Amino acid sequence: MHTTHRIIYHNAEELSELADQSVDLVVTSPPYPMIGMWDDLFVQWDTDIERALANEDGPKAFDLMHRRLDLVWKEVARVARDGAFVCVNIGDATRTIGSEFRLYPNHARILQGLQSVGLNLLPDILWHKQSNAPNKFMGSGMLPAGAYVTLEHEYILIARKGKKRVFSTSGQRMNRRSSALFWEERNVWFSDIWSDLKGTGQRIESHGSRTRSGAFPFELAYRLINMYSVKDDLVLDPFLGTGTSIQAAISSARNSIGFEVDENLDSLIVENMETGIRTGQERIDRRLSDHRAFISGREPTQHISTPYLFPVMTAHETDLYLEVPNSLTWLESNRCTVQYEV
Predict the structure, then answer these.
(1) Helix, strand, coil % (nearest 5) of the chain?
(2) Which of 124, 189, 254, 310 has an alpha carbon within 20 to 30 A of 223's alpha carbon?
(3) Quick check: helix, strand or coil at residue 221?
(4) What's the Cα-to-Cα distance from 18 to each of 12, 244, 279, 338, rounded to whole Å?
(5) Which domains can be identified in the chain, with CATH numbers?
(6) What is the pTM of this model?
(7) How far is CA 211 from the centre of its chain?
(8) How far apart, in whole angstroms, are the C-alpha atoms of residue 172 and residue 169?
(9) Given the DSSP bridges, would you call strands 193-194 and 325-332 parallel, antiparallel or unpaired?
(10) 209 pLDDT exceeds 70?
(11) What is the Cα–Cα distance from 90 to 33, expressed in whole angstroms?
Protein backbone atom coordinates (compact mmCIF):
# COMPACT_ATOMS: atom_id res chain seq x y z
CA MET A 1 0.00 0.00 0.00
CA HIS A 2 0.97 3.65 -0.20
CA THR A 3 -0.15 6.95 1.36
CA THR A 4 0.19 10.55 0.23
CA HIS A 5 1.08 13.61 2.30
CA ARG A 6 0.88 17.29 1.45
CA ILE A 7 1.92 20.62 2.97
CA ILE A 8 0.08 23.85 2.12
CA TYR A 9 1.48 27.19 3.22
CA HIS A 10 -1.24 29.65 4.05
CA ASN A 11 -3.52 30.66 6.86
CA ALA A 12 -5.89 27.96 8.11
CA GLU A 13 -8.92 30.28 8.23
CA GLU A 14 -9.79 29.12 4.73
CA LEU A 15 -9.15 25.48 3.81
CA SER A 16 -10.18 26.13 0.22
CA GLU A 17 -8.02 23.31 -1.18
CA LEU A 18 -10.21 20.79 0.63
CA ALA A 19 -13.64 19.70 -0.54
CA ASP A 20 -16.65 19.43 1.73
CA GLN A 21 -16.68 16.19 3.76
CA SER A 22 -13.23 15.04 2.58
CA VAL A 23 -11.38 14.61 5.90
CA ASP A 24 -11.63 11.61 8.23
CA LEU A 25 -9.80 12.99 11.26
CA VAL A 26 -8.44 16.32 12.49
CA VAL A 27 -5.50 16.34 14.90
CA THR A 28 -4.12 19.76 15.73
CA SER A 29 -2.79 22.18 18.30
CA PRO A 30 -3.57 25.82 17.47
CA PRO A 31 -1.69 28.89 18.67
CA TYR A 32 -2.64 29.36 22.32
CA PRO A 33 -4.53 32.62 22.89
CA MET A 34 -3.04 34.83 25.62
CA ILE A 35 0.31 33.03 25.57
CA GLY A 36 2.82 35.74 24.75
CA MET A 37 4.79 33.80 22.14
CA TRP A 38 1.70 33.78 19.89
CA ASP A 39 0.75 37.45 20.21
CA ASP A 40 2.47 38.49 16.97
CA LEU A 41 0.63 35.85 14.96
CA PHE A 42 -2.76 36.85 16.32
CA VAL A 43 -1.96 40.53 15.74
CA GLN A 44 -1.15 39.74 12.10
CA TRP A 45 -4.67 38.33 11.80
CA ASP A 46 -6.40 41.21 13.57
CA THR A 47 -4.83 44.55 14.59
CA ASP A 48 -7.69 45.09 17.06
CA ILE A 49 -5.92 42.46 19.21
CA GLU A 50 -2.84 44.67 19.39
CA ARG A 51 -4.98 47.61 20.52
CA ALA A 52 -6.71 45.50 23.16
CA LEU A 53 -3.37 44.38 24.58
CA ALA A 54 -2.03 47.94 24.49
CA ASN A 55 -5.15 49.11 26.33
CA GLU A 56 -4.58 46.36 28.94
CA ASP A 57 -7.94 44.78 28.12
CA GLY A 58 -7.13 41.09 28.53
CA PRO A 59 -10.69 39.76 28.19
CA LYS A 60 -11.15 41.71 24.94
CA ALA A 61 -7.88 40.38 23.49
CA PHE A 62 -8.84 36.85 24.57
CA ASP A 63 -12.22 37.12 22.83
CA LEU A 64 -10.74 38.52 19.61
CA MET A 65 -8.09 35.80 19.44
CA HIS A 66 -10.69 33.08 19.76
CA ARG A 67 -12.87 34.70 17.11
CA ARG A 68 -9.99 34.09 14.68
CA LEU A 69 -9.83 30.43 15.74
CA ASP A 70 -13.61 30.18 15.34
CA LEU A 71 -13.12 30.75 11.60
CA VAL A 72 -10.87 27.68 11.49
CA TRP A 73 -13.33 25.52 13.42
CA LYS A 74 -16.03 26.51 10.92
CA GLU A 75 -13.81 25.30 8.06
CA VAL A 76 -12.94 22.13 9.96
CA ALA A 77 -16.65 21.33 10.34
CA ARG A 78 -17.13 21.89 6.61
CA VAL A 79 -14.36 19.56 5.43
CA ALA A 80 -14.95 16.82 8.02
CA ARG A 81 -16.91 13.77 6.87
CA ASP A 82 -19.93 12.60 8.81
CA GLY A 83 -18.59 10.57 11.73
CA ALA A 84 -15.14 12.21 11.62
CA PHE A 85 -13.40 13.08 14.88
CA VAL A 86 -11.75 16.40 15.72
CA CYS A 87 -8.96 16.34 18.34
CA VAL A 88 -7.56 19.64 19.62
CA ASN A 89 -4.61 19.89 22.00
CA ILE A 90 -4.84 23.16 23.95
CA GLY A 91 -3.70 24.61 27.25
CA ASP A 92 -5.22 27.36 29.32
CA ALA A 93 -3.23 30.57 29.85
CA THR A 94 -2.35 32.61 32.89
CA ARG A 95 -1.18 36.16 32.32
CA THR A 96 -0.77 39.51 33.94
CA ILE A 97 -2.23 42.34 31.87
CA GLY A 98 -1.53 45.69 33.49
CA SER A 99 -1.62 44.81 37.17
CA GLU A 100 -4.25 42.09 36.89
CA PHE A 101 -3.32 38.40 36.94
CA ARG A 102 -5.97 35.98 35.73
CA LEU A 103 -6.74 32.69 34.01
CA TYR A 104 -7.78 32.64 30.36
CA PRO A 105 -9.65 29.33 29.88
CA ASN A 106 -8.77 28.45 26.30
CA HIS A 107 -10.13 24.92 26.49
CA ALA A 108 -13.60 26.10 27.57
CA ARG A 109 -13.74 28.73 24.83
CA ILE A 110 -12.66 26.24 22.12
CA LEU A 111 -15.33 23.78 23.30
CA GLN A 112 -17.82 26.59 22.80
CA GLY A 113 -16.39 27.25 19.32
CA LEU A 114 -16.53 23.60 18.27
CA GLN A 115 -20.09 23.25 19.48
CA SER A 116 -21.17 26.45 17.73
CA VAL A 117 -20.22 25.00 14.32
CA GLY A 118 -22.31 21.88 14.91
CA LEU A 119 -19.74 19.42 16.24
CA ASN A 120 -20.76 17.06 19.04
CA LEU A 121 -18.55 17.30 22.12
CA LEU A 122 -17.19 14.07 23.60
CA PRO A 123 -15.23 13.29 26.80
CA ASP A 124 -11.80 14.88 26.68
CA ILE A 125 -8.34 13.77 27.80
CA LEU A 126 -6.37 15.56 30.49
CA TRP A 127 -2.69 15.51 29.56
CA HIS A 128 -0.58 15.82 32.69
CA LYS A 129 2.64 17.24 31.26
CA GLN A 130 5.70 16.16 33.17
CA SER A 131 7.71 19.14 34.37
CA ASN A 132 11.25 19.47 35.68
CA ALA A 133 10.68 22.98 36.99
CA PRO A 134 12.04 23.32 40.55
CA ASN A 135 9.46 25.96 41.52
CA LYS A 136 5.91 24.76 40.96
CA PHE A 137 4.06 27.72 42.39
CA MET A 138 3.40 31.30 41.41
CA GLY A 139 3.18 34.17 43.84
CA SER A 140 4.19 34.36 47.47
CA GLY A 141 4.63 30.64 47.98
CA MET A 142 4.22 29.78 51.63
CA LEU A 143 2.07 32.80 52.57
CA PRO A 144 -1.69 32.23 52.31
CA ALA A 145 -3.90 34.17 49.93
CA GLY A 146 -1.04 35.24 47.69
CA ALA A 147 -0.08 32.25 45.54
CA TYR A 148 -1.63 30.47 42.59
CA VAL A 149 -1.58 26.87 41.54
CA THR A 150 0.68 26.10 38.60
CA LEU A 151 -0.88 24.67 35.46
CA GLU A 152 0.77 21.32 34.75
CA HIS A 153 -1.86 19.95 32.42
CA GLU A 154 -3.26 20.55 28.99
CA TYR A 155 -6.40 19.29 27.31
CA ILE A 156 -7.04 17.09 24.32
CA LEU A 157 -10.54 18.13 23.32
CA ILE A 158 -12.48 15.60 21.28
CA ALA A 159 -15.53 16.22 19.12
CA ARG A 160 -17.30 14.38 16.34
CA LYS A 161 -19.25 15.51 13.32
CA GLY A 162 -22.64 13.87 13.43
CA LYS A 163 -23.25 10.32 14.59
CA LYS A 164 -20.92 7.33 14.81
CA ARG A 165 -19.10 6.44 11.63
CA VAL A 166 -20.61 3.59 9.63
CA PHE A 167 -18.40 0.93 8.02
CA SER A 168 -20.91 -0.39 5.52
CA THR A 169 -18.93 -2.63 3.14
CA SER A 170 -16.98 -5.79 3.89
CA GLY A 171 -13.79 -4.07 2.72
CA GLN A 172 -14.34 -1.17 5.10
CA ARG A 173 -15.04 -3.53 7.98
CA MET A 174 -11.91 -5.57 7.24
CA ASN A 175 -9.78 -2.42 7.08
CA ARG A 176 -11.21 -1.38 10.43
CA ARG A 177 -10.31 -4.74 11.95
CA SER A 178 -6.76 -4.58 10.61
CA SER A 179 -6.48 -1.09 12.15
CA ALA A 180 -7.36 -2.36 15.64
CA LEU A 181 -5.47 -1.64 18.85
CA PHE A 182 -4.04 -4.18 21.22
CA TRP A 183 -6.20 -4.74 24.30
CA GLU A 184 -3.55 -3.38 26.64
CA GLU A 185 -3.05 -0.28 24.46
CA ARG A 186 -6.77 0.42 24.45
CA ASN A 187 -6.86 0.35 28.25
CA VAL A 188 -4.15 3.03 28.50
CA TRP A 189 -4.94 5.17 25.48
CA PHE A 190 -8.65 5.50 26.20
CA SER A 191 -8.07 6.65 29.76
CA ASP A 192 -9.11 10.26 30.37
CA ILE A 193 -5.75 11.09 31.99
CA TRP A 194 -2.44 10.76 30.15
CA SER A 195 0.47 11.17 32.53
CA ASP A 196 3.11 9.15 30.68
CA LEU A 197 3.83 11.63 27.84
CA LYS A 198 6.56 14.21 28.12
CA GLY A 199 6.30 17.54 26.32
CA THR A 200 8.54 18.12 23.34
CA GLY A 201 11.31 20.67 22.89
CA GLN A 202 10.07 24.13 21.98
CA ARG A 203 13.20 25.68 20.45
CA ILE A 204 13.40 26.20 16.68
CA GLU A 205 16.81 26.87 15.21
CA SER A 206 15.82 27.27 11.55
CA HIS A 207 16.80 30.64 10.08
CA GLY A 208 14.04 33.19 9.53
CA SER A 209 11.39 31.39 11.56
CA ARG A 210 9.96 32.07 14.97
CA THR A 211 12.24 30.85 17.75
CA ARG A 212 9.71 28.64 19.55
CA SER A 213 7.03 26.16 18.56
CA GLY A 214 3.98 24.75 20.28
CA ALA A 215 4.66 21.24 19.00
CA PHE A 216 3.03 18.31 20.74
CA PRO A 217 5.02 15.07 21.11
CA PHE A 218 4.93 12.43 18.37
CA GLU A 219 3.29 9.90 20.70
CA LEU A 220 0.32 12.18 21.34
CA ALA A 221 -0.45 12.51 17.62
CA TYR A 222 0.31 8.82 17.00
CA ARG A 223 -2.15 7.66 19.64
CA LEU A 224 -4.95 9.93 18.47
CA ILE A 225 -4.52 8.91 14.83
CA ASN A 226 -4.68 5.23 15.74
CA MET A 227 -7.59 5.73 18.14
CA TYR A 228 -9.86 7.76 15.88
CA SER A 229 -9.11 6.72 12.29
CA VAL A 230 -8.39 3.65 10.18
CA LYS A 231 -5.67 2.91 7.66
CA ASP A 232 -5.81 4.98 4.44
CA ASP A 233 -7.95 7.70 6.06
CA LEU A 234 -7.12 11.39 5.48
CA VAL A 235 -5.80 13.23 8.54
CA LEU A 236 -5.84 17.05 8.59
CA ASP A 237 -3.77 19.40 10.73
CA PRO A 238 -4.77 23.04 10.06
CA PHE A 239 -1.92 24.27 12.32
CA LEU A 240 0.90 22.02 11.14
CA GLY A 241 3.82 23.70 12.92
CA THR A 242 6.87 21.44 12.69
CA GLY A 243 4.98 18.59 11.04
CA THR A 244 4.50 16.14 13.90
CA SER A 245 0.98 15.14 12.84
CA ILE A 246 2.12 14.26 9.31
CA GLN A 247 5.03 12.30 10.76
CA ALA A 248 2.57 10.34 12.91
CA ALA A 249 0.25 9.79 9.93
CA ILE A 250 3.14 8.38 7.91
CA SER A 251 3.95 6.05 10.79
CA SER A 252 0.30 4.94 10.97
CA ALA A 253 -0.41 4.31 7.25
CA ARG A 254 -2.81 7.24 6.99
CA ASN A 255 -2.86 9.97 4.35
CA SER A 256 -2.40 13.51 5.60
CA ILE A 257 -2.50 17.18 4.72
CA GLY A 258 -1.22 20.07 6.82
CA PHE A 259 -1.65 23.85 6.63
CA GLU A 260 1.06 26.14 8.00
CA VAL A 261 1.32 29.93 7.79
CA ASP A 262 5.11 30.07 8.35
CA GLU A 263 6.97 28.95 5.23
CA ASN A 264 10.27 29.25 7.09
CA LEU A 265 9.38 25.97 8.83
CA ASP A 266 9.52 24.09 5.52
CA SER A 267 12.93 22.47 6.00
CA LEU A 268 12.02 21.32 9.51
CA ILE A 269 8.66 19.92 8.36
CA VAL A 270 10.33 18.04 5.48
CA GLU A 271 12.94 16.64 7.86
CA ASN A 272 10.26 15.41 10.26
CA MET A 273 8.27 13.84 7.42
CA GLU A 274 11.31 11.95 6.16
CA THR A 275 12.11 10.89 9.72
CA GLY A 276 8.59 9.41 9.85
CA ILE A 277 9.86 6.32 8.02
CA ARG A 278 12.36 5.41 10.73
CA THR A 279 10.08 6.62 13.54
CA GLY A 280 7.25 4.46 12.24
CA GLN A 281 9.47 1.40 11.99
CA GLU A 282 10.72 1.88 15.55
CA ARG A 283 7.25 2.56 16.97
CA ILE A 284 5.78 -0.53 15.31
CA ASP A 285 8.67 -2.68 16.53
CA ARG A 286 8.00 -1.41 20.05
CA ARG A 287 4.26 -2.05 19.83
CA LEU A 288 4.86 -5.65 18.78
CA SER A 289 7.57 -6.29 21.38
CA ASP A 290 5.48 -4.64 24.11
CA HIS A 291 2.55 -6.90 23.23
CA ARG A 292 4.70 -10.02 23.22
CA ALA A 293 6.03 -9.08 26.66
CA PHE A 294 2.51 -8.38 27.92
CA ILE A 295 0.94 -11.57 26.61
CA SER A 296 3.79 -13.85 27.68
CA GLY A 297 2.95 -13.35 31.34
CA ARG A 298 -0.73 -14.18 31.04
CA GLU A 299 -2.84 -17.30 30.95
CA PRO A 300 -3.32 -18.80 27.46
CA THR A 301 -6.15 -17.24 25.47
CA GLN A 302 -8.36 -18.68 22.77
CA HIS A 303 -7.55 -15.86 20.34
CA ILE A 304 -4.54 -15.96 17.99
CA SER A 305 -3.35 -13.19 15.70
CA THR A 306 -3.71 -14.27 12.08
CA PRO A 307 -0.82 -12.10 10.74
CA TYR A 308 1.58 -12.58 13.68
CA LEU A 309 0.56 -15.97 15.13
CA PHE A 310 0.89 -14.79 18.73
CA PRO A 311 -1.93 -14.81 21.31
CA VAL A 312 -4.16 -11.75 21.69
CA MET A 313 -6.76 -10.96 24.30
CA THR A 314 -9.86 -10.48 22.14
CA ALA A 315 -11.35 -11.48 18.81
CA HIS A 316 -11.13 -7.84 17.69
CA GLU A 317 -7.33 -8.11 17.65
CA THR A 318 -7.01 -11.23 15.52
CA ASP A 319 -6.76 -9.31 12.21
CA LEU A 320 -4.68 -6.42 13.59
CA TYR A 321 -1.78 -5.69 11.24
CA LEU A 322 0.70 -2.84 11.50
CA GLU A 323 1.79 -1.47 8.11
CA VAL A 324 5.53 -0.73 8.23
CA PRO A 325 6.66 2.36 6.27
CA ASN A 326 9.49 1.53 3.90
CA SER A 327 10.33 4.50 1.68
CA LEU A 328 9.31 8.09 0.93
CA THR A 329 9.30 9.69 -2.53
CA TRP A 330 8.78 13.39 -3.21
CA LEU A 331 6.35 14.02 -6.08
CA GLU A 332 6.52 17.81 -5.74
CA SER A 333 8.24 20.15 -3.30
CA ASN A 334 5.23 19.96 -0.98
CA ARG A 335 3.81 16.49 -1.69
CA CYS A 336 5.17 12.99 -1.17
CA THR A 337 4.10 9.38 -1.26
CA VAL A 338 5.08 6.69 1.24
CA GLN A 339 5.38 3.00 0.41
CA TYR A 340 4.85 0.28 3.02
CA GLU A 341 6.42 -3.15 3.30
CA VAL A 342 4.58 -5.93 1.50
Answers:
(1) 35, 25, 40
(2) 310
(3) helix
(4) 11, 20, 28, 21
(5) 2-340 (3.40.50.150)
(6) 0.93
(7) 21
(8) 5
(9) unpaired
(10) no
(11) 10
